[in-house]
Recover the amino acids of this structure.
DNA sequence: TGCGTGACTTGCAAATACCATA
DNA sequence: TATGGTATTTGCAAGTCACGCA
C-alpha cells in the first residue's frame, strides 16, 4: 500500500452536501473496503408488454401471430431495424439462432428463414411510440420526470459507512440483443432477462437487507466487505460478472482515483532510471529481456495499452502492446528523410484503429528485425512476453507499477507541460482554447478517437455564419465610432461607442476561438483522458493560476467526481 | 508456470436534457 | 413555443491486473 500524501489545505467545502473530508478519513489496512453498507437493491427491468393486436408480424408474406416469448425477442430485432447492425450476416445469424430457442415448436417449424421475416410493422410501431413520447404535453413529461426522480431517491443512493452515496448504475440491464464493437463474433445474440434469482446482493449483516419482489428470491445475499459492489449477476453472452457499484463522486472511487495519480507521480520520480534500464536491456543477451525492453519502450513512448491475450473467437480481434502480431508492424530502414521507421497499424481496444509511424533508435530497430525473423504474419511479435511477465518485472522496478501507470503518467505530464507551454495571459476564451489544446495533445497520444459528429459540417457552417455576422456588426459599429469622432459628439457618447466596439471585438474573438477548437476536435475525444488519465489537480491549479472559472473546465458531474482534487490543489501544485 | 476468474477501470456511442433562436 | 443543435448523462462493452488453483 503506497503511503498517502498529506493534504495541503484544510478549507471547508461549503457547497457540497455530504462530502466533507471523506478522503481524509482513516482507511483500514486489512483490505476491507467498508464496515457498513445498506442499500435497496437493484431496479429490475420492466416486464415485457405484448404488442397491441394491430401490430402484425409477417412470415413469407403471411400473417403470423407469435407467442409472447418469441414476440419479445422479435421486438428487439425490430427496434434495431434501422441500424446497420441488422444487415450484418453475423448479427442476423446469431440473432436467428437465439430467437429460435424462444419459439414454440410450431413457430420453429413455420419460421425457417430469417430473410422471410417481415418486422416492419413492429418497427413502425416503435417509431410511432417514440414520436408520441416526444409529442407529450409538458405535464405528462413532468410526471415522468418526477417518477424518475422518485426512483432515483429510493434506489439511487446507499449508505456506506457514514456517508450517503450516489450509486452509479442501479438499474439491471434490460434484455436485448448484444451489440459488440467491431467485428464481434457474438453480435446479435440474445442477452437474456435477469431475474431476482440471478442476482447476488452484497451488504452488511447489520443493515436492512434489500427485499426481492413479491414471490421471488435473490440468488444469494452475502456480506463481503473486501469488495465494493452492491449487486452482481452473471451475464450470458461472455459469462462474465456485471456489477452495481458506486458513482465516481463517492469516497471509495475518489480515493482510488487519488491513489492512482499518486502512483503515477511516484513513477515520475523514477522514470528516468527505468528508461535507462530498458535502454540497457535492449542489448541483453537474453531474447526475453530484449523483448520486454522493447515492449516497455513502446508502452512508454507511444502510450500503448498492456495488451492481454484474449480467447480466440470469443471477442473481436484486437490487440495491445504485448499481443502485437507480426502483421501489425512494418519496418522501414529509410522512409523519406528518416531512418529506422516503424509503422504501426492495428485495432486496439473497442476496435479503434491505431496507426502511427515512428522513427526509433537503431538498436530498437535491429531488435525488431530479429523478433520478426522466421515468423508468419499471424505470429506474436513478442513471443517471449505477456502482460503478466511484464507487470511482474515492473512491480520489481517500483512498488505498484504496472503497464497502465505509464499511460496515466505520460498523459498527466503531457498536460502539465502543454499547459505551461501554451497558456498565455490573454482573454478567458483564449486560455480555454489553450487548455483544450493541451487536453487534445493527450487525447492524441492516447489515441482517443471519435466518429466525427453527423452534424459536424453543418455545425461549422453555423458558427461561420455567426462569425460573419459579428464581423459585419463590428465594422458597422466601428464606422459609427469614426463618424461620432468627426462630428465632435459628446465625449460620453464616444466612450460608450468605444466600449461597444470593444465588446463586439471580444465576442468575435470568442467565436473564432470556438470555431478553431471545434475544427481541431473533429475526430478527437477529450472525455476519456479528462476523466481517466489527467490528474485533476493539474487542472485545478491551472484554473487558479490563470483565474479561469472552474466550471469552464469541469462541468457539474466532473466537479463532483474531482471534489477531492478541487479541495486539495493550490495554484502551485506540481504533478 | 499457466490459466481461469473476479473486481475494477476505461471507452465510445446513443439517449436525453437543456438552451438559444426563429 | 416549437425546433434544432449542443452539452451532458447513461449504457454497457471491453479493457487491465491480481489472485487462487492445479
Amino acid at each position: 500500500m503506497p503511503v498517502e500524501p498529506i493534504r495541503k489545505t484544510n478549507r471547508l467545502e461549503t457547497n457540497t452536501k455530504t462530502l466533507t473530508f471523506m478522503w481524509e478519513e482513516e482507511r483500514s489496512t486489512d483490505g476491507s473496503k467498508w464496515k457498513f453498507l445498506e442499500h435497496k437493491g437493484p431496479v429490475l427491468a420492466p416486464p415485457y408488454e405484448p404488442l397491441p393486436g394491430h401490430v402484425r408480424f409477417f412470415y413469407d408474406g403471411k400473417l403470423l401471430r407469435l407467442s409472447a416469448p418469441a414476440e419479445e425477442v422479435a421486438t428487439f430485432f425490430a427496434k434495431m431495424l434501422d441500424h446497420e447492425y441488422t444487415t450484418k450476416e453475423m448479427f442476423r445469424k446469431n440473432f436467428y439462432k437465439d430467437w429460435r430457442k424462444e419459439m414454440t415448436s410450431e413457430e420453429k417449424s413455420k419460421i425457417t428463414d430469417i430473410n422471410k421475416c417481415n418486422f416492419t410493422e413492429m418497427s413502425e410501431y416503435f417509431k410511432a411510440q417514440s414520436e408520441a413520447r416526444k409529442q407529450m404535453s409538458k405535464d405528462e413529461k413532468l410526471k415522468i420526470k418526477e417518477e424518475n426522480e422518485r426512483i432515483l431517491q429510493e434506489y439511487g443512493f446507499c449508505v456506506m459507512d457514514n456517508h450517503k452515496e450516489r450509486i452509479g448504475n442501479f438499474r439491471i440491464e434490460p434484455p436485448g440483443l448484444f451489440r459488440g464493437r467491431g467485428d464481434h463474433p457474438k453480435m446479435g445474440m440474445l442477452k437474456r432477462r435477469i431475474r431476482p434469482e440471478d442476482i447476488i446482493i452484497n451488504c452488511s449483516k447489520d443493515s436492512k437487507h434489500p427485499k426481492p419482489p413479491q414471490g421471488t428470491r435473490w440468488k444469494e445475499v452475502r456480506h463481503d466487505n473486501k469488495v465494493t459492489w452492491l449487486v452482481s449477476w452473471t451475464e450470458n453472452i461472455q459469462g462474465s460478472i456485471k456489477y452495481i457499484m458506486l458513482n465516481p463522486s463517492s469516497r471509495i472511487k475518489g480515493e482510488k482515483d487519488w491513489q492512482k495519480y499518486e502512483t503515477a507521480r511516484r513513477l515520475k520520480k523514477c522514470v528516468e532510471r527505468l528508461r535507462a534500464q530498458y535502454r540497457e536491456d535492449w542489448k541483453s543477451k537474453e531474447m526475453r529481456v530484449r523483448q520486454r525492453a522493447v515492449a516497455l519502450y513502446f508502452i512508454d513512448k507511444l502510450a500503448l495499452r498492456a495488451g492481454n491475450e484474449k480467447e480466440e473467437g470469443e471477442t473481436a480481434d484486437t490487440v495491445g502492446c504485448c499481443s502485437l502480431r507480426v502483421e501489425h508492424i512494418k519496418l522501414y530502414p529509410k522512409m523519406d528523410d528518416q531512418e529506422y521507421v516503424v509503422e504501426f497499424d492495428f485495432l486496439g481496444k473497442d476496435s479503434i484503429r491505431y496507426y502511427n509511424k515512428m522513427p526509433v533508435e537503431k538498436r530498437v530497430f535491429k531488435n525488431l528485425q530479429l523478433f520478426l525473423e522466421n515468423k508468419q504474419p499471424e505470429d506474436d511479435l513478442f513471443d517471449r512476453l505477456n502482460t503478466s511477465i511484464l507487470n511482474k518485472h515492473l512491480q520489481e522496478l517500483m512498488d505498484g507499477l504496472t503497464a497502465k501507470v505509464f499511460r496515466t503518467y505520460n498523459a498527466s505530464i503531457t498536460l502539465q507541460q502543454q499547459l505551461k507551454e501554451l497558456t498565455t495571459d490573454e482573454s478567458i476564451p483564449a486560455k480555454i482554447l489553450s487548455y483544450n489544446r493541451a487536453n487534445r495533445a493527450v487525447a492524441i497520444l492516447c489515441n482517443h478517437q471519435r466518429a466525427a459528429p453527423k452534424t459536424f459540417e453543418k455545425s461549422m457552417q453555423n458558427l461561420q455564419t455567426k462569425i460573419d455576422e459579428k464581423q459585419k456588426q463590428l465594422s458597422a459599429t466601428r464606422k459609427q465610432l469614426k463618424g461620432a469622432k468627426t462630428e465632435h459628439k459628446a465625449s460620453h457618447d464616444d466612450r460608450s461607442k468605444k466600449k461597444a466596439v470593444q465588446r463586439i471585438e471580444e465576442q468575435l474573438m470568442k467565436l473564432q476561438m470556438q470555431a478553431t477548437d471545434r475544427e481541431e476536435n473533429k475526430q478527437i475525444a477529450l472525455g476519456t483522458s479528462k476523466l481517466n488519465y489527467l490528474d485533476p489537480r493539474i487542472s485545478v491549479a491551472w484554473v487558479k493560476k490563470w483565474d479561469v472559472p472552474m466550471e469552464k473546465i469541469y462541468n457539474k458531474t466532473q466537479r463532483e467526481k474531482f471534489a477531492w482534487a478541487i479541495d486539495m490543489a493550490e495554484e502551485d501544485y506540481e504533478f
Summary: The longest strand of chain A covers residues 338-347. Residues 169, 171, 173, 178-181, 184, 237-238, 240, 242, 305-308, 310, 315-316, 318, 320, 348-351, 387-388, 391, 402-404, 453, 455, 458-459, 462, 555-557 of chain A lie near DNA strand C (CB under 10 Å from a C1'). The longest helix of chain A spans residues 251-281.
